[in-house]
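Table S7 (text form). Paired inputs.
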Amino acid sequence: MFFLSVRQRVVVLTGSGISAESGLQTFRNHGGLWAGERVEDVATPEAFVRQPLHVLNFYNRLRRQLQNTQPNTAHLALKHLESVYDVNIITQNVDDLHERAGSSYVLHLHGELLKARSSVDENYIVDCFSDQTLADTDDNGFLMRPHIVWFGEAVPMIEPAIQLMRAADIVIIIGTSLQVYPAAGLVQYIPPKAEIFLIDPQPYEGLKNVQIIRASAQAGVNSLVSELLRRSEAQSLSSQNGDH
């Protein structure tokens, strides 16, 4: 008798390294700059109170840049992994490149550039594909802001991310310094039995029981996905042969 094997659960944690290879300007800890701006001037609630138009214009530029950017082969390979694995992506990135590559489940820890929300009611969230202005308000007349989790704000999606990580059979960490919390703390919830792969040209060295792939996101992800797909095919063939 032939039994279908249970699909293994792969949880992928992505950071700025995967988006940078599509040409997106990303936040860098070195110097505290994001796309040439000091983070305290564009990525804090205080900055929005002080200079709302300056903050809106900064995200308007990022949004326009994103809309002229395409997913790269790392994004596409992660979609391909869904053919034989149950894949959930947790991303620190605010772009939609995983979605455009076709990934079925993407959890955004730090918000989404293509959405806006009320500056007062955090549950009032709308799609935003064009420039935001000071004339944009919610139904109660309150100013709309980018749907981005700024420094000093809570990360609403961290609990669902923790639950995903706890259920992982395989964890793939791509292009993140593992220095920004609470996202970096997710590694604490990886089950002891899970395989962990870290893909980065300059990987974080503080993790135990990790298979490190010192490569760019595209080279590393394509290589690992090919290997995981070959492994799954071999296990499937072995299972079938054992049932005959």
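Next pair, protein 2 of 2.
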Amino acid sequence: MATTSTPDLEELTPNEAVQMYLADKQSDSAEATVRSHKSRLGHFLDWCDENSIENLNNLSGRDLHRYKLWRQEGINKVTLKTQLDTLRVFIRFCEGIDGVRQDLSQAVQSPKLEDGDNQREVIVEQEQAEQILGYLEKYEYCTLRHIYAILLWKTGMRVGATRAVDVGDVHLDEMAIEVNHRPDGETPIKNKDAGERYIAISEETTEVLRDWIQDRRPAVTDDYGRNPLLATKHGRVHIETLRKYSYQLTRPCEIGNGCPHNRDPEDCEAIGFNDASKCPESKSPHSWRRGHITHLLRQDTPKTVVSDRVNASPEVLEAHYNQMTEKEKMAQRRDYLGDI
């Protein structure tokens, strides 16, 4: 495609536009959000390269439709919507810097989702969580994996929040964990300052954390002189290590439950620590959060209480986290309504 500029627009290459957009995004977004946008827009850059689009001044609505058709191959509707929603925001940014024609962002048509399309049903159920914690308590008491699994299941924190906790944030006497947003120390949390909160923990959880802090935790600081709760001898544990712990612990064979797929451990592609996510049964850290929230809702915990605890609105809880069946919801309503 020719590189001539449209009148009143300033020539702008796709790569330069994306770099400017990401730099602007960094000023008011969490690092993980910027990474996600960079990944999604990477597909758009690939498409531009394949189609010799060198100047966004010439980008048309028809081009954006062609990109949509190209991108939708091999991905589900939810992923496609996420990709195109990000593209629309990016194109709107380009409008503001005279890189594309005005109102071009309106030509980005992302699919509409039906009820249930946007739910992620993978979940660590209460029974599985209790089996994992029981195994760790018996065979790996007060290890890093044990403490991490306890935080995931007992608090419902996001993986980034578990990593962000310092020893000083654990208030043993008050049986509470304080969650803080500290981007300058490379431990941001989702929703930033609005995500800061105190999380109540049980006496049992408090005692295990006390044992870890006083007897088992490596006496290390991170690169900022802080004392991370989740620590190895090298300092604050890396977030990718925590993700791998989750995949590892949710493999049935990891806790002695055998393989439901009858795989031979000697030949299984998922047996290694770095390959645990390849197990069909393995689950991400967010699945523990989903399980924690669903468990609380099944216990009739008011949504406002759950919302404050896990830093998610009641609407988000219902749309993305509540995995109760419709019959469970009906039975719960019946308990409130009585003989109506």
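Confidence is low (pLDDT under 50) at residues 115-120.
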